[in-house]
Amino acid sequence: MAEQQLEKDAADRLVSDFTPPTAAVRSLRKLADGKPVKRDADGEKLTPGRRIARILMYIALVIFAIGLLTPFVWMVLSSFKSSNEVFSVPIKWLPETWVWQNYVDIWTQSNMLVWIRNTLFLAVVVTFLQVLTGSFAAYGFARMRFRGRDVLFLLYVGTIAVPWQSYMIPQFIMLSNFKVSNTLWSIILLQAFGAFGVFLMKQFYETIPEELSEAARLDGLSEYAIWRRIMLPLSVPALASLTLLTFVNTWNDYLGPLIYLRNPDLWTIQLGLKGFVSNLFDTNYALLFAGLTISVIPIAVIFLLGQKYFVEGIATSGLKG
Q1: Of the residues 23, 127, 248, 253, which has the fewest C-beta atoms closer than 10 A?
Q2: 114 with 178: CB under 8 angstroms?
């Protein structure tokens, strides 16, 4: 009997050697062989269908990017053309003669330095005030408890949906009565506060654990200290996003300076470049495009430097928990 049992065990082992391995065994062998299964960013297996969908998505994004960049590239190339060559038919993308003199003339034939100085001053001051007031007000809505808080927040954020054109005339009359019209202070007072900044910062504050604030209160910190020492350092991505959006919006603002800044010495770069367009047939568009290219450079540089924080701030501002 013992010999028969030994023969049976040997036969079972022999059969098991030729039995196809299970899925778990095959997965372990693949890991041991150093050939991991290809997976996408979500951790799911990258099937041929997913691979094709991803390729199509990349192609669509490339086409979309080309559509966005084409006007900008045409503007930059046109800034090196002569005035008659800009709107030539058929369109010529590259200039026949590169006219570098356009960038010299835009500085000598206009107050470009004054326009840039005024625009930079307004953009920096307005951005600082919006980040300061927006982050501070957002802390009150996110962490303080008082009656009517949610209703007040909804009413404040609801002002985003009200177009500025609907109340700009009463606003102009009010600022004129305050004797700040035709000064840079009028633009600063108009844009020093923004509901969007409060909304963005509040959404980000709610992703920060409440336990940090409670521990700080137990240590004796005031609400102001908690906002300054804890909330602000942890909100760098949201602060960077708000800074970038506010700076770009103030730099590109045209309607506000057009209404309030009548003195040419107070003009911003957008308002100054508009002076080059006297009429459709008597405008040096090559010179105008050179000025527009100069006006875009600071925005492009700031966005390239802060795009990492901008994307992170926008992506995390909608999360809670």
Answers
A1: 23
A2: no
